[in-house]
Amino acid sequence: MSGPHGRAQDDTEAGSQGPGLRVPFTARPRLVKLLVAKAALDLLFVAALALGSGYLTVRARFRGAVEHADPRTVRGWVADTAEPGRPVEVQLFLGDRFAASTVAEDPAGDGRRAFVFHLDTPAADSEARVYAVEPGADATRRTLRLLR
Amino acid sequence: MNPQSAGPNPQSAALAAWEIATVVLSVLVAEWVVLSVAGGSVPALAFVILTSVAFMLLSHRARGETARDVGWRLDNFGRASRLIAPPMILTTVLLVAAGLYTSKLDFTRWRGEDSLPRVLLLGVLWGFLQQYALQGFINRRAQIIWGRGPFSVLAVALTFALLHLPNPWLMLATFAGGLVWARAYQKEPNLLALGLSHGLMTWVLISAFPSAALHNLRVGYKFFG
């Protein structure tokens, strides 16, 4: 294609009609670069989200321990390492069942707060687990962290 | 052979398909990943929206598309409005009748705690943004792949419905709306008329049915929350 008509055919895409839909072939490398850049940005963004959420999941924001447990009382302490000294909501599970909730607010030194659960009915022979409640970005999302 | 009547160049079609895919993927990431992993973080959502809009603007520039080509114009506003008015009126009559029949019609429902004019204004602005992405970008790229006509119109409507997964009624509504708006855009590309229509039809839809019936218009991961 060496004539003027052939040149016109070579300069634009075929099959597209309407203003702006016939693309100069010279624009293709720019579009490809644009697509690659966008894909790289998206990939980095999703990777950052994944790493960020992974960090939020595995980081040890709370320290704490159950120091005493008998059929009527569970006692221990918790510390929020992000905000030392902050009262922390804690939840007691007996076996796999939710049993009680309270706020650890009694100062126990070194940024720790003490909690105690008094059970109205003696707990059966089941394992007591205490979780600190981590607030989410909004009120609908909260995460339970096991105190070890 | 006349290049305008030939089928699309495979490379051009592939390029256009990738352009559609990257924008659709960004919206899906916002709906499914950001809302689930980042709890709907505003900066994260803003990042997705801004990078997508920037990509679409740079793509227009690379392709030599002007704002007028894309549909930001007034000269055909009347013609575009006349094209979409009949289906809009018919849908409005049907939705209002359904709302009256079930005694659930409430034209102030959309405002929630806000003022109705403000909500309507935000709704229309949101409509402009959605119609720009859907018609000004995806529809135009779909025409590069399939040409003007039913295939590209169907592709746009299906894409619009896909972006409203997994809300069944909203998917149905957006598929139907997508068909009407995509067809109208191919005949008279005017994003102002389509954005206004989008905002108004959303208002009528919300007014006709209780929020629970439409699952509060929630899509993506938020649908389950």
What does the model show?
The complex is a heterodimer of chains A (148) and B (225). By secondary structure, chain A is α+β, with helices and mostly antiparallel strands. In chain A, 26% of the residues lie in helices and 35% in strands. Chain A has two helices and eight strands, in the order ααββββββββ. In chain A, the strands form two sheets. In chain A, strands 1-2-6-5 form a four-stranded antiparallel sheet, with no helix packed on it. Chain A has a four-stranded antiparallel sheet with strand order 4-3-7-8, with no helix packed on it. The radius of gyration of chain A is 30 Å and the shape is elongated. The relative contact order of chain A is 0.13. Chain B is mainly alpha-helical and 225 residues long.
Considering DSSP H and I runs of 4 or more, what fraction of the residues of chain A is helical? 25-40%
Are there runs of chain B of 5+ residues with pLDDT below 50, and where?
1-5
Gyration radius from CA atoms of chain A, angstroms: 30 Å
Helix-strand pattern of chain B: HHHHHHHH
Shape of chain B: globular
Largest chain interface and its two residue counts? A-B, 36 and 45 residues
Strand order of the largest sheet of chain A: 1-2-6-5
End-to-end distance of chain A: 78 Å
Alpha-beta content class of chain B: mainly alpha
The percent range for helix content of chain B is over 70%
Would you tell me the overall average pLDDT of chain A? 80
Per DSSP, the total helix count of chain B is: 8
State the oligomer: heterodimer
Number of helical regions of chain A:
2
β-sheet strand percentage of chain B: under 5%
For the report, how would you describe the main beta sheet of chain B? Answer: none
Overall form of chain A: elongated
Major sheet description of chain A: 4 strands, antiparallel
Q: Tally of extended strands of chain A?
A: 8
Average pLDDT level of chain B: 89
In total, how many beta strands of chain B?
Answer: 0
